[in-house]
Amino acid sequence: MSAYLDYNATTPLDPRVCRATKPWATERFGNASSRDHRFGWDAAEAVSEARSSVADALGAGPVNTLLVSSATEALNTVVRSYVGYDRWAQKTIVTCATEHEAVLAPCRGLCALTGVGLHIVAVDDAGHVDLEQLARLLRASPGALVAFMAANNETGTVHPVREIASLVHAADGLFLCDTTQAFGRCAIDVSSDGIDFATVSAHKIHGPQGVGALVAGRSLTDELQPLILGGGQEQGLRGGTPNVAGIVGLGEACRIARDELDQSTSRIGVLRDRLEDGIVAQTKDVWINGDRRRRLCNTSNIGFRGVDARTLIRDMHDVAVSTRSACSSGSAGPSHVLKAIGLSDEDAYSCVRFSLGRFTTQDEIDYTIGKVVASAHKLVRAKSVRR
Ligand code: PLP
Q1: Going by DSSP bridges, is the β-strand pair 299-304/319-320 parallel, antiparallel, or unpaired?
Q2: Burial class of 47 by CB neighbour count within 10 A (0 to 12, 13 to 18, 19+)
Q3: Nearest atom of ligand 1 to the alpha carbon of 203
Q4: For the chain, which terminus, N or C, has the lower number of CB atoms within 10 Å?
């Protein structure tokens, strides 16, 4: 037996997505930009239907939905567009210490290059920003680009998106909300939530890797500039032949995520609680990171005091979990998210992220509890013998 509890890193393709995608990679293989024959027309039609499905799932219009390669590309497109190409423009970006590197890296890099101001707001021990402090900061920086995620990928803490949106708009700012982990696990509606730009990554919602979307809440596509110049695809905002099969998969994954949101979140929430209760009941000196109430249904980040999390994970070997986001998992330092919520380096190195998904079973949960408890006990015993 083995268990895969790393759904925040990537998810397996849903068989329905696989079925929808396959014909577009085999017999119906046209280039959606080919205007002269049926293969091209059919591919363009498939892309258009998929775009509508993505837009519908997030409460947006298809014309405001750009199809891109990843959430990282979507986030970079907005940051790059806001910063613009004039050096030393009087602009400010406000973001949060627990954002994903797909936001922090372009903000740091482009602000350093252009002289645009950058404020990285601290969080409390549950991962929340102080909204009054944020309101004061935004009043002092009118017109800022404000990049706050809807839900954190490491702890699952869910931010008060609507409240943040109204603070941003009261200060004439633009709200970029990284909804990459939240979409499919919480209801996201860009118009009623007040989100100016939201992001989707197909591989986080049982779609294929290498495809995603940038979804604008209002008619904001004219605020954007292309990261990739080429043949004028995506309203001139992203050059390159569209990945038709991937886009069809993204559309189907979004449709399923929206239609099955309620049933899947309640089922997954029950399994997540079973996992936490099982581990907490049988292991001493453990704690749960993030906001216990306002948290993604699928995510649990557990600290095992005195245990090195990487050693614990290696000891379990057939249980797939992680210490932090997949793209930072090769880096040596402690997780910036766990540091931002106030953990010491030692405690941050002791935390394991468990993330569940559509295909997680109760057997996998029970197997994981057994493996975690046995490995944690073994490592604590080995440490006390060494002392
Ligand atoms: N934002 C968040 C919150 C994420 O968790 C991730 C991926 O882990 C990304 C952005 C980047 O997504 P992608 O893999 O589509 O580039």
Answers
A1: unpaired
A2: buried
A3: 15
A4: C
- For residue 102 the two structure tokens come to 């797909």
Do residues 322 and 6 touch, judged by C-beta distance below 8 A?
Answer: yes
Q: Kind and range of the H or E element at 191?
A: helix 190-193
* Ligand 1 mutation pick, 99, 180, 211, 301, max ligand atoms within 8 A of CB: 180
Give the residue numbers annotated as catalytic, written as ranges. Answer: 327
Ordered DSSP codes for 145-189: EEEEESB-TTT-BBP-HHHHHHHHHHTT-EEEEE-TTTBTTB---
Element (H, E) at 8: none
For residue 327, the model assigns a pLDDT of 62
Q: Convert the pLDDT of each residue in 310-320 to its tens digit.
A: 999 999 989 99
- For the stretch 339-367, pLDDT in tens is 999 999 999 999 999 999 999 999 999 99
For residue 180, report the distance from its CA to the centre of ligand 1, in Å. Answer: 6
3-state secondary structure of 25: helix
